[in-house]
């Protein structure tokens, strides 16, 4: 009897305390929290930040893995201007690419990174290299003769933090250059330039280095794994079983150096096929299946899948939108649904098309840019810039697929950028809400998969929820049941 009275008193007291705590702690967290509210984590098919809010990457590729190993475009614009252009589209992320060779050279050079000036001269020659270098420092006056390539990456990461743009750091190639032919020696572990130890060393190095970047929220293992045509011995290794072995090594290399970042896994067939992971089928020729426990301490909340969508290249005729969507579903997007054996967040880290007047009405472009937001998947278009310092032997080579013009100053296809691209950005960035009443937010006919209402519930009230659970836990500890 006395105990019952005591419990009643305690219950009301706890209710009041909990209310006060959750009010004050929400404001406290509101006040203390600052972008990017990291580290980001995954929960089922969602990426969330530390406040519990859902994060959808919406962004653009920014290559830095061609021969100079310096992020492109800086001979034409400042980093601040370029990040502002990305921001002006309403995007929130960049996929910044680098080559393992940059880290190899760091070690070959007595653990010192090569200067930007030397990199330009080595690759473009004395006169052209110096001319480009001088333009870069004219646009970016904080740089000078001592500035190293990694310091250029640092400056981009710093500007991204300032403008609240997430940096996804992508290991694009081993030997720097244009990617990704099956002949380039970069295709698969063990290929001419794709040394496994150099690769894991490079991943660890960048993961460690990136700890100083507020904006760094994720890293990839490797861009576009593919069969090697020049190295026939590797044919026996190009399979899911070897993929799984190497992917664990790479993921461990990143996670042990930097446990905060999300780790993106890319599949086979130039990152166009993730079926064995999504469906949990045998990792052939072996019989094991994908198991999060093999990624110790982070398999449950740090892994994200990435997919590329390129039905418009290599002479592939573009099919109808429904055929394209079915293919994307079967090769990766299924991971966003309950029908997947393994649910993960998914980011389409590359897709793109030539930018010209007709892009604004291109049916492939509108198919993808309608599908991605409808699935609440992340996406990053190839590519930001309109030219390369050097690509495949041509200096100042034009990039027809660049959102920006040759000199990175204006949109190449304003009709596209301000039209279907902007619409897709806006709808991907809109708060996720289940307002169609059918509980099937991704529109794929699988209603139970979708949980945006709980995601937004968590984002609103997680501090209160945690405290409620904590206080009830203490209550439970002392008094048994309630
Ligand atoms: C691995 O890195 C070393 C430098 O530490 C470099 O000399 C070597 O060429 C690299 N291996 C490959 C296959 O690129
Ligand atoms: C994806 O790979 C699997 C083997 O893992 C294969 O059976 C399937 O046909 C591939 N899908 C496509 C669309 O290439
Ligand atoms: C735009 O690009 C597409 C795809 O490469 C091409 O077929 C078309 O001719 C181009 N249009 C113009 C006006 O240049
Ligand atoms: C997207 O949102 C921005 C900011 O609200 C707005 O300026 C722009 O017009 C929108 N784009 C489209 C295509 O509605
Ligand atoms: C359209 C779609 O994705 N449908 C899938 C819903 O989930 C069931 C299994 O639960 C699949 O068989 C369907 O293909």
From TrEMBL:
> SUPFAM superfamilies per the record?
(Trans)glycosidases
- Signal sequence, start to end: 1-26
Q: Chaperone among the record's keywords?
A: no
- Which regions form coiled coils? none
The Glycoside hydrolase family domain covers 61-385
Question: Which Pfam families does its entry note?
Answer: Cellulase
Bias category Acidic residues: which stretches?
Answer: 433-450
Q: What is this protein called?
A: Glycoside hydrolase family 5 domain-containing protein
- What organism is this sequence from? Xylaria hypoxylon
